[in-house]
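User: For my dataset I need records formatted as: sequence, then structure tokens, nothing else. Please produce one.
Assistant:
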Amino acid sequence: MKKASQIDVENFQSDVDFIGALDKEIRRIKIEVSGMIEKGKIAFKSLEENARVLKLMDHAFISPSHDYPFVSLDDLVDRLKKTRNAANLTVPQFKERQFDENGVVAELSEFYVKWLLGPKEKSPSPLPEHVNRIGRRMSSLRMDNSARKALSQKVSRGQQNTAQTQSTGIVRRIIRDPKSQLKFSIFALDAAPEEIDLPTRITRKMMISADISMEIIDEFFKKKGTRETIFSLSYLEDALQKIYSKAQKVLRCEFKNYENICEIIEKVEEQLSSKIFSSSFSDFEKQLKSGEKDLRSRNEFFEEALEDARNDHLNQLRVNLGHPDDLWKLEKINEEENERILRKSKFIKDKAEEQIEHLNDVTSNFLSRLYQNSSRLAESLSERVLFVEIMEENPAFEQLTLHKLEAKHLPDFENEEILISKKTNAHFELEKERQLHFLKLKNIFSARKLEIRNDESNSLEDLHRWEMHFESQIQHIKSLFSSV
């Protein structure tokens, strides 16, 4: 028979090998989880850089800086799209929707809340608190039979009390064996989830590692005989909980940074409508003035010719033309001036119609552009993944409808309702700026149209007064020779 000292040495060596194997698995999963976290951080740094540049460009758009002396609207919009896309691509690292076999979104809200926002309360230990405290103090490597027997009885009583409480209907609780309860207390899941995002990937890896570790524990105690595993489970729970908690803490920190970046994006989006419509209104004024300038340049030669003919006819008037021998010359001058007046009248009317046509075309074009910009912007603003989409499995979005603009007394333009399926603050700003821009276009159109018609009316009145004046001059000259 083996000596007692030799048995103790063999027991000690087997205990050391057991602890070494268990620690090796714990170190392995710790390194693997750290690698996954670092890989996620690298991907997140790209988003942080995009957000930093976006914030600087947005500020430089109003107040140019040394780094960004000039930022065009197109550059700002392009940077916003890149940052928004980078943010949307980052979301699946935090959470990706899962579907069960029926195509229904799996309920994992509490799981993700624990990962991204923090636990509401500490998960219960897999063992009753009084048992857990005893188990943490006692060493399973040197536990005598009486201690193991007493501890086993406490565990049995705890399970019996739980079962009795459940049968009374006062508290409903799922009864799990200590190993299953250990995994549930750490991961808040009964089964390993599918690897679709960073939390589920880490959770699945760690649950598999927990199974491996518990196999090591089971194998050890099979060889050693029937022994309690409370200390081993507590040790494993502590080790895995530390790894899991650290991973959650890092991811929560990254998720907080993601929220800050979303606030930057949201702020830029809220101000984007004003920038786009202000730029469009500036283009409208420039195009309107440019077209009117072209019309003036095109009509300038003919207008000067008519003015020269008027002066020429006026200078040809002489008192002696009233003599009967020269009266035909006076009549010819009068006919030519009447023809000039008809041409001048037609020119004034045609000029006004050209200006009105140009005003209608430009206004119609920019009103249609207002609808197109609003539609594209509304769709673009809805592309950003909202916080509620991340934290809720089946979020209900409030819809918004941008109604048709009032087209009365305006030229025809593209004008339809814009339906927004996912309303945000930026959409409210869009509607406010859209109405403001429309009112400015409408006021410019109405004021300019009235100005053109007033100019036309005044020019015709001036022409009529000139016609009466010229006719009076003719009659005065004729009257001088009325007695001849």
